[in-house]
Amino acid sequence: MTVNLRQIAELVSGEIVGDPETIVSGVSSIDDARPGDLVFAESPKHLSIAQQSAAAAVLTRFQPENPAKPMVMVPNPRLAFSRVLQMFAPAVKEQPGIRPTAYVAPGASVSPEACVGHCAYIGERAVIERGVVISPFTYVGDDVTVGEDSFLYPHVVIYPGTRIGRRVNIHAGSVIGADGFGYNPSENGHQKVPHIGGVIIGDDVEIGSCVTIDRARTGFTEIGAGTKIDNLVHVAHNVRIGKNCIIIAQVGISGSCVIGDGVLLAGQVGIKNHVKVGDGAQVAARAGLISDIPPGAKIAGYPARPYGEEMRIWASLGRLPEMVKQVRSLEQRVAELEERLREAGEK
Q1: How far apart are CA 263 and CA 244, in angstroms?
Q2: Residue 304 in contact with residue 288, Cβ under 8 Å?
Q3: What secondary structure, in 3-state letters, does the chain show?
Q4: Share of the chain above pLDDT 90, in %
Q5: 237 contacts 181 by C-beta, under 8 angstroms
Q6: Residue 43's closest CA among 15, 90, 78?
Q7: Which long-range contacts (CB under 8 A, 24 or more apart) does 187-190 make?
Q8: pTM of the predicted structure, to 2 decimals
Q9: Which end of the chain offers a freer environment for a tag, N or C, measured as fewer CB atoms within 10 Å?
Q10: What's the rounded Cα separation, in Å, for the pair 347 and 252?
Q11: How far, in Å, CA of 284 to CA of 140, rounded?
Q12: CA distance linking residue 133 with residue 167, whole number of Å
């Protein structure tokens, strides 16, 4: 695929500096740039490196006095670059229809505009709406609804009763709607708690590979519209996650937590059961939340503290060996002074 710089500027509503007929045949990072590639630069430092690379043109918001390459000026180079990526990597289009090796239960409803891949399973009363792609070896249980233009990648498992919104992507190996982890101790051992609820996933949600989202004990486990979940995340029973959240790899959210809108949970965050995280909160990697977090808070550490306080603690740790020496020195001087006072008192 080849386009000129004018077409790219029109796509991203940018202003061209240099030759608008410059041909762009690919996109890449600055480090990997080849002749014909478009790259983006978010800082003067990166722009300087981009100017010296093999790239054909640069997306940026900084304009040097003597540009060495054609540029497209935009307020947000990263966002503009994402739009160009979509141009060069259009969405996968599968031919509609049910493949001959797929199983579709007699009571299921599959749109003629949906695609059901080889060896997929569609259960009774399941509803597969138009534009949906069910990849090979995917299981969709009884009474599941999959909304328009959603894409289920290979080996996804959707347990019965799950409701999936429109334009949802669920990547390979994820399991939605398995039983929650609940047991009551008794004299006969651990007695399993039945989980008879379900899972609701809102519109425009993306779920990475090998994510597990458990069904509710009663009611629903909910994922809000626009939320993006990275690989290897676990969401326990009855959790409610708000809209437009970002949840990064290896996060674990215990049962009945409430995560507000626009929350960011960085990698390996762990959250105790029944904790509430307020709208817009940001939680740094590997933090452990054991109590509620107010809206807009920035949190780090275990147990979690305000981000600034945690950073001061970490900064202090680097000085800890010297501080120990100072304390020992002070202890020795105090001991010497006490000895002098004792001797003076005896005289």
Answers
A1: 8
A2: yes
A3: CCEEHHHHHHHHCCEEECCCCCEECEECCCCCCCCCEEEEECCHHHHHHHHHCCCCEEEECCCCCCCCCCEEECCCHHHHHHHHHHHHCCCCCCCCEECCCCEECCCCEECCCCEECCCCEECCCCEECCCCEECCCCEECCCCEECCCCEECCCCEECCCCEECCCCEECCCCEEEECCCCEEEECCEEEECCCCCEEEECCCCEECCCCEEECCCCCEEEECCCCEECCCCEECCCCEECCCCEECCCCEECCCCEECCCCEECCCCEECCCCEECCCCEECCCCEECCCECCCCEEECCCCEEHHHHHHHHHHHCCHHHHHHHHHHHHHHHHHHHHHHHHHHHC
A4: 84
A5: yes
A6: 78
A7: none
A8: 0.85
A9: C
A10: 68
A11: 35
A12: 10
202-236: per-residue pLDDT in tens? 999 999 999 999 999 999 999 999 999 999 999 99
Largest CA distance in the chain: 107
Q: Is residue 119 a contact partner of residue 134, using CB atoms and an 8 Å limit?
A: no
Give residue for tokens 């501080």: 323
Residues belonging to the active site: 237
Characterize the bridge pairing of strands 23-24 and 3-4.
antiparallel
Task: State the residue for tokens 């935009």.
Answer: 74
